[in-house]
Amino acid sequence: MRSIWNGAISFGLVSIPIKLVNATENHSIHFRQIHLADGGRIRYRKVCELDEEEVQGGEIGKAYEDADGTMIPITDEDLAQLPLPTAKTIEIVAFVPADQIDPLQMDAAYYLSANGVPAAKPYTLLREALKRSNKVAVAKYALRGRERLGMLRVVDDVIAMHGLLWPDEIRAPEGVAPDGDVTVRDAELDLADALMDTLGEVDMDSLHDDYREAVEELIAAKASGETVRPAESGDAGGGKVIDLIAALENSVQAAKKSRGEEGAGAEGEGDGEMADVHPIKKTSGKSSPQPTKKSTAAAKKSTAAARKSTPKSTGAKKSTSTTKKSTAKKTATKKQTSSSSGSGSGTKKTASSRRRTSA
Prior knowledge:
Elements: E1 3-11, E2 14-22, E3 62-65, E4 71-74, H1 76-80, E5 89-97, E6 106-114, H2 120-133, E7 135-143, E8 146-155, E9 158-164, H3 186-199, H4 210-223, H5 244-258, H6 293-358
Parallel strand pairs: 1-5
Antiparallel strand pairs: 1-2, 2-6, 3-4, 5-7, 6-9, 7-8, 8-9
Helix pairs in contact: 3-5
């Protein structure tokens, strides 16, 4: 990688020669401006306002515009004479915990490479000291004509530097927060926590720019003369009043479904729509199950069997009636026998009494 700055890290009395290399690159697709009538390229030319002539780069200098519009020329020699100790040095001023650096201050990122063999030992010393302390170094450096603030930290086996904005360059968030008091219920927080847990973590290397890929496909299609079909526009839902609880619940279900987890709900859930709920009506009696083919056939068989057994039961009734009649005859015979025996004993007693009287 090509270095963009050469200098040294000032670590107390230790000086570490280094090269500054860009740690990031921009993959955005850039477009040119053209004339719609003929497709000609539109270019910007630098023209002097006084003589209205185009000026080349070697004829252009710097100036500061005063409040009344007066231009005060400033040359490179003027800037070189300024007392700037960090012109060629990254001067470490402190070591602080990483959480003391406000992410809002983060700017461009660079890799610091040891410049030459003698720089390897002090470079490694600073790297290992940063690792063991779990701290970052706050430093000052000068780049592109101005002094900047930076943060040094270890990435793998390399010291990286993040450009930082000065504290007075961070705006206060005045008038940004929602107006008025907004109450968030515990149930909403619980669902938000559940959604966060369901989404879980992500492999940062797996993330990519979908829009850039779509633009590249569009350019390739138009270059080959293919017809480009318009993409379906999705509903962003801006300005729509939503049921927050329902939206969170559906989001949890959708996240589980996308991850293939169990209990994600039936297909179609989690699409942001509210399901209609119909209450079950209560009935006084027990609900009878719907007849099936098997139960209908069994009922027919039992009915046929009952019909066949009907004559047998009639015969049984007749035999029962005959038995009752015979039982009644036996009972009558016994009564007659007992009555006849009773009358005979009475006759014997009368004859005996008559004999006693005659004597």
